[in-house]
Amino acid sequence: MAMTPRAPRRAGVVLACLVIGELVTGSSLAAAPSLPPGFEPGERVTVKSVRDGDTVVVEGGREIRLIGIQAPKRPLGRSADLPWPLADQARAALERLALGREVTVHFDGRRGDRHGLILAHLVDGHGRWLQAEMLAQGLARVYTFPDNRRAAAEMLAIEDKARRTRLGIWRDPHYRVVSSDQARRFVDSFQLVEGRVVQVQTISRKVFLNFGSDWRTDFTIEVPPAIRRDLARRGIDTAGLKDVKLRVRGWIKLYNGPLIELTHPEQIEVLAR
């Protein structure tokens, strides 16, 4: 005679499913986009260990940095010895995605850095683009370079969705988007800064987007001539950005007031006019 499953067992199965669901949130079940075309595929390698949320070690001891993203990790060049919030979760997520698996490296720009790390996008045997998976889980943010920025638009869209749904790091105040009037508090760190442009000035062919009435103290974006031309080709006229709300990402330095110098156009996002 068939037996009806007892309630405690059913509850246990449901709980287990919920736990498994938490572990894979944002991974293959979220159908993160595939790597866009245009990259040069390289060799297939097996991931032997995971250093942190954006660095893996493959056979031969070679280290690969997942270029285009920045995951929580140990502080870079700081005296504090504590990891960034969610560093352990980011590392664990990348381990679930990559540890012991074969992945294919894909290149666009510069292939290595001064520390000897390989700079590449990684795709596993199921076609999963690992950078997209980490962004989709909210366990990394977009961090592009002038010579490594292909697929920036796709990555920014994935990051934006994770941020709007407050996944992963986007729930933690440590990673919040900083308002332009708070930028001085975050000098010498990589940040996402939002605000409305108050003044546009051109000095020695450089454009300065000032987010306050006093450029000596308020947050500013410096736009070199080459980047201004790149932005214009993308339909963004820097001369017309007064009163426009922007989001910019980069390292904040102190030059008069807090300032981010653009090195490539993908650092700026137009939010509202």
Number of helices: 5
Average pLDDT rating: 88
| Low-pLDDT windows of residues | 1-29
Which series of helices and strands comes N to C? HEEEEHEEHEHEEEEEHEEEE
How many domain units?
A: 2
Overall shape: globular
Written account of the structure:
Strand 2 and strand 3 form a beta hairpin. The protein is α+β, with helices and mostly antiparallel strands. The N terminus is likely disordered. Strands 1-2-3-6-5 form a 5-stranded mixed β-barrel. A 5-stranded mixed β-sheet has the order 10-11-12-15-14. A 4-stranded mixed β-sheet has the order 8-9-13-16, with no helix packed on it. Helices cover 22% and strands 30% of the residues. It folds into 2 domains: 127 residues, OB fold (Dihydrolipoamide Acetyltransferase, E2P), CATH 2.40.50; 96 residues, OB fold (Dihydrolipoamide Acetyltransferase, E2P).
Short description:
With about 270 residues, the chain is an alpha+beta fold. The protein has helices spanning about 5-25, 85-100, 130-135, 150-165, 225-235, and strands at about 40-50, 55-60, 65, 70, 100-105, 120-125, 140-145, 180, 190-195, 200-205, 205-210, 220-225, 245-250, 255, 255-260, 270.
Keywords:
single chain, 273 residues, alpha+beta, OB fold (Dihydrolipoamide Acetyltransferase, E2P), 2 domains, five-stranded mixed sheet, 5 helices, disordered N terminus
Describe how the helices and strands are arranged.
Blueprint lengths: L6 H18 L15 E13 L2 E4 L4 E4 L1 E3 L16 H12 L3 E6 L10 E7 L5 H7 L4 E3 L8 H13 L13 E2 L10 E7 L2 E5 L2 E5 L9 E4 L1 H9 L11 E7 L1 E3 L1 E5 L6 E5 L1
Parallel strand pairs: 3-6, 8-9, 12-15
Antiparallel strand pairs: 1-2, 1-5, 2-3, 4-7, 5-6, 9-13, 10-11, 11-12, 13-16, 14-15
Helix pairs in contact: 3-4
